[in-house]
Automatic annotation (TrEMBL):
UniProt name for this protein: DUF1344 domain-containing protein
Signal peptide: 1-20
Source taxonomy: Bacteria, Pseudomonadati, Pseudomonadota, Alphaproteobacteria, Hyphomicrobiales
Gene source species: Aminobacter aminovorans
UniProt keywords, alphabetically: Signal
Length: 78
């Protein structure tokens, strides 16, 4: 019985992590002052001050990771 509970708990934990989403694309606009990245697909993301921001260049491909709710940027990867 303990093994079934542990397996179910592990599955529930892993599925929660899968809810986080990411957006990949090419940077069309970037405003360092306001920390807003706009991708070529038209989606814009404001990067909070507590999230590290690499040196982003226009035309560069980036991956923007979002929290579980999809409303806050958690990381920007080049």
């Amino acid at each position: 019985m303990k093994k079934i509970i542990l397996a179910a708990a592990s599955l529930a934990f892993m599925s929660g992590a899968a809810l986080a989403s990411s957006n990949n694309g090419v940077v069309m606009k970037f405003s360092p002052a306001s920390r807003v990245i706009t991708l070529e697909n038209g989606h814009s993301f404001t990067v909070p001050r507590d999230v590290g921001l690499p040196n982003v260049q226009i035309g560069e491909k980036v991956s923007i990771e979002l929290n579980d709710e999809g409303d806050k940027v958690t990381s920007v990867l080049r």
